[in-house]
Each structure stands twice: as C-alpha cells, then as structure tokens.
Amino acid sequence: MTIEHLEERVLDYKKSIETVVAKKLLWKTTTKDLLVNTLSSIVNQYSIGWNMQQLHWINNNEAVNITFESFPTELINSTNKIPAYQFIPGAALVFSQSYNGDVFVFILFPIVENMPIENSTIDLGILSPKEITEKLIIEKVDEFLKEMIKWEVPAIKNKLGY
After folding, report:
1. What is the DSSP letter of 148?
2. What was the pLDDT predicted at 22?
3. Residue boundaries of the structural domains of the chain
C-alpha cells in the first residue's frame, strides 16, 4: 500500500467533518430556537410545575429540556389532605446535542431512594437536527407525559421501603 491509497479515506474524513459542522450550524441557527420556543409555549400553556431550561454541556454541546420542578399549584389542596405526600422533582425530557451534531432525545426519571438507578432513563432516539420539527417535539412531550403517568401510577407495583 502506498500513501496515495489514503486519498479516498482523507476525502471521506473531510466530508465527515463538513457534515458535523453543518449539523452543529443547523442546531445553532434553527433547531435550538425551535426547541426553546416550542417547549416554552407548552410550559406556558400548561402550568403543571414544569420549566424549560437551556443547558451547556462539556465541549460546547448544548441541551434544551423541560423538567418538573414543582407540584402543580392547582393540585396543592389535594396533597394537603395527605401531609406525608412528597412531590419528587427531577423528571426531564432532554434534547441534547452530541459531539457529532446529532440530537439525543431521552427521558430522565427522578432519583428515588431504594429504586434501581438502571431504570432512570429512557432513550427516545437519535435525530439529525433537520429532523426536529414542532410536530416531533410535541410528539416527544406526549411520550414524556405518558412515561411520567406510568412512573407516578405504575401498572406493576414496585415494593419500596418496608
């Protein structure tokens, strides 16, 4: 093999870098704003204790998420009937840009003492920034809410505590 045999691989490598740059540019110019605006609209329209966040991860990667931070105010009277009730914050639907410009979509569940940590996330997919639309974001929020309902009221009873 001679050095000249590397030309095709070098060209492929350059293309791969161009692809990553294009995806990261699309995230920066379009996808991130679409996520922020759509998730903000959802949070503002449905006041159920969630908040939209923008996060900056290591190595310039970013994420946009919605997370449950507080109990819905309209249900506080219900919980006052059970003084021992404790809202567990921390559930989140995350759209995280990866090192290669793709977007990981996943759900984080609240961390609960005595519950297995291996069940703390669900992957909803890896998407190119160009695949992310308002419709897709709404569908992922719908999936997130369905998973939160299952988490709050599981069909199979998990034994916690004593």
Report:
1. H
2. 96
3. 13-152
Say if strands 92-97 and 121-127 run parallel, antiparallel, or are unpaired: unpaired
Q: What is the pLDDT of residues 5-24, one digit of tens each?
A: 899 999 999 999 999 999 99
Give the sign of the dihedral formed by CA 40, CA 136, CA 123, CA 19: negative
Q: What is the pLDDT of residue 117?
A: 60
- Take residue 16 and report the two structure tokens written for it: 């791969």
| Owner of token pair 């903000």 | 40
Residue where the block lists tokens 């974001």: 137
CB 86 within 8 A of CB 66: no
Cα(24)–Cα(103) distance, rounded to whole angstroms? 10
Backbone angles phi, psi at 70, to 5 degrees: -145, 165
**Confidence (pLDDT) at 2:** 83
Reduce the DSSP state of residue 47 to 3 states and report it: coil
Residue 99 has pLDDT above 80, yes or no: yes
| The one-letter amino acid at 96 | S
